[in-house]
Amino acid sequence: MTIQEKYLKIVDEVIEKGPYKPDWVSLSEYEAPKWFRDAKFGIFIHWGIYSVPAFGNEWYSRNMYIQGSNEYEHHIKTYGPQKDFGYKDFIPMFKAEKFDSDEWAKLFKNSGAEYVVPVAEHHDGFQMYKSDISHWNAYEMGPKKDMLGMLTKSVNNNGLVNGCSSHRIEHWFFMGHGKEFDSDIKDDEKEGDFYYPAQKEPDNLADLFSEPAPDKEFLEDWLVRSCELVENYNPKVFYFDWWIQHSSAKPYLRKFAAYYYNRAEERNVGVAINYKHDAFMFGTAVVDIEQGRFKDAKPYIWQTCATVAKNSWGYTENNDYRSVNEIICSLIDIVSKNGRLLLNVGPKADGTIPDEDKNILLEIGKWLKVNGEGIYGSKVWRYSEEGPTETEDGQFKDLDSSLFTEKDFRFTANGNSIYVFALNYPESQSITVERLADADASKLPLFNGIIKNVSCLGFDEKVEYIRDEKGLHISTKNVKSPYPIVFKIELY
Q1: Is residue 273 scored above 80 in pLDDT?
Q2: Which residues contact 137 (CB under 8 A, 6 or more apart)?
């Protein structure tokens, strides 16, 4: 029995014994676990061979073979022609000699994160874990360490929840441009080769029926690789990148979900699948919006994946970093609408996390340590927001925190309290929250609760407040911060 046959048998046996079957109706019965519903902040990690050239972005493996691209020209100038030095030749240079999984996990803990999702395999096809399926992995090549295994252990030891992600399916076409000229990617690529299958990239990647479509051999390999990760690392979150929405992948998505949920039942753990672009039937997994958000609060849980750098998910030497305030404002906006933020960092090839990434995470952690009660375990309030500044629905809708005014607020609820997030607390230290006006509930479905106390998280001073038909008027004397201010509204 081959390795592939072994894992395919495991998948079938687990499905046969479990309550979930590989169809959307059965899978819709699954509910994400309470820990994930309560979780609001996770860490994403893009780390791999692409951190060696550290140029452009994490798509270097594709772009270096596209003639005329910046990466193509940079590669020839720096390393020589692609036929003499291909992407695979970076592997010995990826040493991760300073990698300390415990140090990483402590940093993530101090950031205030609750779960951690390392990329187990990116589009380039290099596995960051010990694998029996392919020799092109970090345990046998490059660092010669089980990166995912080491980090999983450290994450769990620090009280965080471990996950992983697979971007494997895009490998179907990711190296295909290398066949368009004289490079180290040849027409005779075969199964087991690093670049295989290196198919022609579709003209329109949004076309769900594009050709050439991934074949049975490739899709079974995708399923087997996913199964290996579940069997050996027990991830509680399994994130899939885009293009799994392609029509050819649908039967395999259903099969994986049934296997994964059933295995979780056996192990008595709660797990969640993250997906994009309606790849899964709505209600069978958790939708993820890349670098974006919903404009309004949703009755279902969702996630945004975003990165600390605007230009790349992986480390580059010219990363353009987002401000801490922008990220905190994004977190608040997302949580107020029933989402959670999966924030990405890109370590260097030597295994260290850049100081810029570290500082951002630690600043977020300091803010969450003070204001976390309005974030962790919170629920959507009857209103998610107030103010003139509008956010947009959709992917790649960056949030410009500098546009927020003193009248822009976000809301959450937790226990007996409502939390008001003042996104741009004014120098005057005086705000009016119209959503909390003294309203006649017999006429309008507005807030009609009785306020017991108003306090400002992280500050000892007594908050002055008056409530009338125009709003809740709040004033302070010594409350200043470069980041959003949070008021706790306790109710009788």
Answers
A1: yes
A2: 126, 127, 128, 129, 130, 131
